[in-house]
Amino acid sequence: MTVHTPAPAVGTAPAEGPILMAAEGTAAFESHPRATTDPAARAAASTDRSGYEPATVPDAVVHAESADDVVAALRLAHEHRIPVVPRGAGTGLAGGASAHAGEVVVDVSRMNRILSIDPVEMIAVVEPGVLNAEVNAAAAEHGLFYAPDPASTAICSIGGNIATNAGGMWCAKYGVTRESVLGLRVVLPDGRIVSTGRRTIKGVTGYDLNALFIGSEGTLGIVVEATLRLRPRPVRTETLAAYFDDVEAAGRAASAITAARIQPSILELMDGPTLDAVDRAEGTHHRALGGAFLLAQTDGYGAHLELDAIAEAIAPFATSVHRAADTAEAEALVKARRDAIPSLEQLGRVSIGDIAVPRDRLAEAFKGLEEIAARTGVRIFSVAHAADGNLHPMIVVDPSESITEGPAKAALGEMFRLAKRVGGTLTGEHGVGLLKREWVREELGDTSLELQRAIRDVFDPEHILNRGKAL
Amino acid sequence: MTVHTPAPAVGTAPAEGPILMAAEGTAAFESHPRATTDPAARAAASTDRSGYEPATVPDAVVHAESADDVVAALRLAHEHRIPVVPRGAGTGLAGGASAHAGEVVVDVSRMNRILSIDPVEMIAVVEPGVLNAEVNAAAAEHGLFYAPDPASTAICSIGGNIATNAGGMWCAKYGVTRESVLGLRVVLPDGRIVSTGRRTIKGVTGYDLNALFIGSEGTLGIVVEATLRLRPRPVRTETLAAYFDDVEAAGRAASAITAARIQPSILELMDGPTLDAVDRAEGTHHRALGGAFLLAQTDGYGAHLELDAIAEAIAPFATSVHRAADTAEAEALVKARRDAIPSLEQLGRVSIGDIAVPRDRLAEAFKGLEEIAARTGVRIFSVAHAADGNLHPMIVVDPSESITEGPAKAALGEMFRLAKRVGGTLTGEHGVGLLKREWVREELGDTSLELQRAIRDVFDPEHILNRGKAL
Known about the structure:
2 copies of one chain form a homodimer.
Chain A: H1 22-28, E1 35-36, H2 39-44, E2 60-63, H3 67-80, E3 84-87, E4 104-107, E5 114-118, E6 123-126, H4 132-140, E7 144-145, H5 158-164, H6 171-174, E8 181-187, E9 193-197, H7 209-213, E10 222-229, E11 231-232, E12 237-244, H8 247-259, E13 266-271, H9 272-282, E14 292-299, H10 303-314, E15 320-323, H11 327-338, H12 340-345, E16 349-352, H13 362-376, E17 379-385, E18 390-397, H14 406-421, H15 440-444, H16 446-459
Parallel strand pairs in A: 2-4, 3-4
Antiparallel strand pairs in A: 1-2, 5-6, 6-10, 7-11, 8-9, 8-10, 12-14, 12-15, 13-14, 13-17, 16-18, 17-18
Helix pairs in contact in A: 8-13, 13-14
Cofactor (chains A, B): FAD
Keywords (chains A, B): FAD, Flavoprotein, Oxidoreductase
Region (Disordered) (chains A, B): 29-53
């Protein structure tokens, strides 16, 4: 590899213990066959889709093609105490994959093979760089599906899903990533490999290291293989869209579904401003039908009966209810929800909130978000995984503005206070990353944070991996 | 409290680091208002339902009535380095709650209140000593249920369920304890209290300490409060029982249900010898109908249609299929399965295996168990949570015989080899406890075990809690 002398660090790397000089890190990685210091590659690996823009770029990028490449990279990092940022598809929403001068990125996006699918056991073994939608396409050939389906399914990778314990629409019924990952192979910060979990559905030998890695945001190890649990595709799926005067009415309708003891497989909410943005980007006409939108899907042998129950539960709140007549109509409704983030990205720089609240506090949370928008002067667009109480309030600022200071930052902080006030949490499924660190201690408390940092020290005593993130 | 001078330890306490003299431990706990050295209390707290009989009894028992009592006990233990064995209902099946001379038992079975139920959020907050069936009875008043339902539901407590990550029948569809525990309050070995998890369905701030405590078998802390996720009671439930010539045919039928992409809420298998034992104990007549039994239940809006699909899938294997005509018939069939362990306990000392295997290897596993019985000369009775591939092969020996040596021990070891050979695990839901420790390293591997022990050291550097168990 050609070694470029990188620009000196300008101080945006997370400060935590001594950071090496950039040049020293670059030099050590000269021997890695997959490393590059190409400026374009380094710039491309410097941030994610959180809207965060680092002031510097990493010293080098390792484009790993195998577990051995990852092992070699971490051995070098361990030996020379070089901070490493693990990277997958770069679609994270919290700055977890952002990298700075003095750091080396280990990118696993080329490790993108589906190694095996066992259709009888309903298990897929995959590399971390495979995209979520590719796993689902392969599973569909066997009448199966992989339940965690972030809105970004077409562009996000399984490794990143694992790093953040990603959710999505179907997790209303089928649980988040933790419930669908049976086992992992992980390269530890010193280059050793450990296997966690198993191929069986149940198993309790030892502590649940599998769950510990899931959601650890790349701070404990780099996943090089995952054993995923697939599920039978439902024999029947039914879909409806309902429109409401405003988002509070839609929030009350969602809570009414929960209170009526119904288990939708999808329950998604969008507010009026988001509908406007989607209509503008996609040429659809949702906003004309109401000031808020609720998408509900049921599945299973009694899907049609369960959708009847949903229609009945939301009737007192809705201005209109439309049942999808066929698969094409259903897919168009689901697509509207998936289009929300890309549509908003056409309006400016987007910073996506991710608070989760108790499910009967949804209407209150939406009201609180309106107040935050009024108070801070930022524009907030809201969608929610309503069956889980997980809201994504999206702050949109001018592309020239920062999301890590000024009104956008203030609004993010107020969202956390709002979540806390109603008994909720800072992040439901996107992770803490770089952007939400300052509220972590307040949510977890001193004792929990101390234990978690001590656990990190067990895996990564030198803080090589994703330093300054997550905790 | 009155201090009795305990009998000297006779060497059965798990050796791991220095163990205090029994008398010293007793003396330190004199100041605890809930401690007793009454010989009957100490004998009662010395073992569980695993069939293991310790040669000594613990020095004292603390009957905690509050979190403060647990804190006080662990502060004493921490200060004086006294090994503590946490105890709930004492229904464990792996010796995890067994206690010996030199140890003090902290029994939380009197902490048995349901603190609150939120019927809208579908959350129960409970103390650890409340029985599993009591939670379900309280939830039923609100149209809800608590999914993890071990066969011992009437006598096992939530704290023990958490310690072992207990499963049960309904976890075929609804997941194990980990999927139903949202949050915990835990007293650490030094007396500090930490809260884990949250009241919301989703949340990823920090590492998953909640999952780390679940299944840790009392080695990381003592749970004093749990926030449980309840679920809507299904609108409809349908049940059938099928009989087969032998257990291999029943195993093939269970695998056929999985392969047909059907999701039963219960799928339980019993072999002929177990049916004999149940019939003898309960006056039923299952054995006359076949050499193996499969119980299947479906639930939800389309339960009747899904049960049709199950009947179709198993028809090629079954000799007869009986659909329950009403709730009473369905409950009688479920009861037959719940009666299995108590029925076998009438035949002798029972040691319960708990291997889990890939779901399409069930028939092979049953065949392997028959070979183990023939080779070791022990009687093995088998039941299985068939949808999860979790088998409970029960070894029954004469009450005068030990289960920790001789043929019973040899058979347990062979079961582990069998599980390993077909890609399975040592324990699906009962835990390692004292009785399965010697196979843990072989399953986990050196690196994983080393990490897990280092994690234990973070929580319990002095190894005060349940020393010599689990890892």
